[in-house]
Amino acid sequence: MAVVPYKENQASKKEQVAEMFNNISHKYDFLNHFLSLGIDILWRKKAIRMLKPHQPKQILDIATGTGDFAIEALALNPDRVVGVDISAGMLEIGKQKMEKKGLDHIIDMQMGDSEKLLFEDNTFDAVIVSFGVRNFENLKQGLSDMHRVLRPGGKVVIVEFSQPRTFPMKQLYNFYFKSILPVIGKMVSKDQSAYTYLPESVAAFPDGERFLNILGEVGFNKTECKPLTFGISSIYIGQK
């Protein structure tokens, strides 16, 4: 059974995830950086640096949210970055952010389904995703579509939460994720389900070697997993 934000709701996971992000969009950026103590910013920077040798000019940021990863990708000096998300609330805040920063001419924020991307085959030099793939309704379908829109030789770079497996980080991580994070998330965002769903979705996600196997199954090669900060997150890399 799929892990969903609102267990009493009969809507699909995709619909529930969109609703959840609409509900927390007004506080998302603050909570993201506050709850991670700002480490998420460093994780994104490291992921983008891994693309530097490839100099991608056309970049797709899937599950872009408010566009933080898309903005980080500008360090690569691309011609164009397209950010796609299913949450209208997150995109609206992202568009406002781009206009305020004067980036709306190079970062194009679009409504879109990550599992049914509205782009031609072989369109992008790189596809990036930051903390989004565990929210996919159909993980393989989403990864397959990323592979489809990449040009031959193109790279995918995915940042996602993983589960520490060594003492004492495993115990500290579980306590924080299950006992502290939902309380703070509810207080600030007024949506308790969103921050209860987060640890549940991380626990259900096939991290590490299992995720590399799935990337291989949908056609990616030269796959790598680089753990971050004692295994709290990981960067996954693949090539078409």
Automatic annotation (TrEMBL):
<comment type="similarity">
    <text>Belongs to the class I-like SAM-binding methyltransferase superfamily. MenG/UbiE family.</text>
</comment>
<dbReference type="InterPro" id="IPR023576">
    <property type="entry name" value="UbiE/COQ5_MeTrFase_CS"/>
</dbReference>
<protein>
    <recommendedName>
        <fullName>Demethylmenaquinone methyltransferase</fullName>
        <ecNumber>2.1.1.163</ecNumber>
    </recommendedName>
</protein>
<keyword id="KW-0830">Ubiquinone</keyword>
<dbReference type="InterPro" id="IPR029063">
    <property type="entry name" value="SAM-dependent_MTases_sf"/>
</dbReference>
<dbReference type="GO" id="GO:0043770">
    <property type="term" value="F:demethylmenaquinone methyltransferase activity"/>
</dbReference>
<feature type="binding site">
    <location>
        <position position="85"/>
    </location>
    <ligand>
        <name>S-adenosyl-L-methionine</name>
    </ligand>
</feature>
<dbReference type="InterPro" id="IPR004033">
    <property type="entry name" value="UbiE/COQ5_MeTrFase"/>
</dbReference>
<dbReference type="Pfam" id="PF01209">
    <property type="entry name" value="Ubie_methyltran"/>
</dbReference>
<keyword id="KW-0489">Methyltransferase</keyword>
<dbReference type="GO" id="GO:0009234">
    <property type="term" value="P:menaquinone biosynthetic process"/>
</dbReference>
<keyword id="KW-0474">Menaquinone biosynthesis</keyword>
<feature type="binding site">
    <location>
        <position position="66"/>
    </location>
    <ligand>
        <name>S-adenosyl-L-methionine</name>
    </ligand>
</feature>
<keyword id="KW-0949">S-adenosyl-L-methionine</keyword>
<feature type="binding site">
    <location>
        <begin position="113"/>
        <end position="114"/>
    </location>
    <ligand>
        <name>S-adenosyl-L-methionine</name>
    </ligand>
</feature>
<comment type="pathway">
    <text>Quinol/quinone metabolism; menaquinone biosynthesis; menaquinol from 1,4-dihydroxy-2-naphthoate: step 2/2.</text>
</comment>
<keyword id="KW-0808">Transferase</keyword>
<comment type="function">
    <text>Methyltransferase required for the conversion of demethylmenaquinol (DMKH2) to menaquinol (MKH2).</text>
</comment>
<dbReference type="GO" id="GO:0032259">
    <property type="term" value="P:methylation"/>
</dbReference>
<feature type="binding site">
    <location>
        <position position="130"/>
    </location>
    <ligand>
        <name>S-adenosyl-L-methionine</name>
    </ligand>
</feature>
